[in-house]
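seq as requested:
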Amino acid sequence: MNISISVQWLATLLPEGFPARRPIVITGPGGSGKPLIGDAFIASWFAAGGSVVFLSLQYPQPTFLYESYRRVIGEDLGAYESRIAFVELDTTIDDLGPVVGNRFTANVVYPRVFREAVQRGSDIASRGAPPDGPGVMVFASALNLLMFSPTWGTAITEQLVATMHDGTVTTLFSVSEKPHAEKVKKIEDAADLVLYSERPADEFSLVMNVRRAENLRFVPDSITIPIPKEELQATREIAERSRSKVIPEISAI
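struct tokens:
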């Protein structure tokens, strides 16, 4: 089953849409707007009747996700509230926190907790979805952060790959090509669809192409993505602040 793409610039690269229940990875250098590209997939997923579990490690609160989605897609993410679950990283616990509305905390550095967080998030997000929809998409970004754990870095990478191959959810993962390039390659190799984004020189613009698409027609050319300069700047600043806090915390686990 392919999902029709509702955002024109992404549809230009993937005229047949993108596959449900198959793993998708957006990769590229740090600061190349990968979560913003993810918004285009998410908009199409919602339009098809799907639900989304957000697990954005670099954003401390869902507020930024709402603002970003509105500026990039032009829609209010709150319109899909009944089909959304938010998982917030909490490195001070070793399990899952209580559910508050459609949100809960979890220390997803631990492979078992990551697996259980995906399951709980899927259960929450599925409640408001139409029965004929494509199911649940798990959108997880900045996954390199989990690899900084000296104890769990390898095991959590294996868990990410296992989740990608689960088949009960559609995974949309964004990951920088560095650091932890060897672990990142395992994530890329496990994906059926790999997109690569970069920011030319010091410009605040994004260029993207399809690196690999299994059994899916795509346009091999690179395209410039029309994402506002201020959105790229805001995304980079928030991500850098979060990484400066989160990396030391995960490195101690």
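Residues 229-251 form the longest helix (23 residues).
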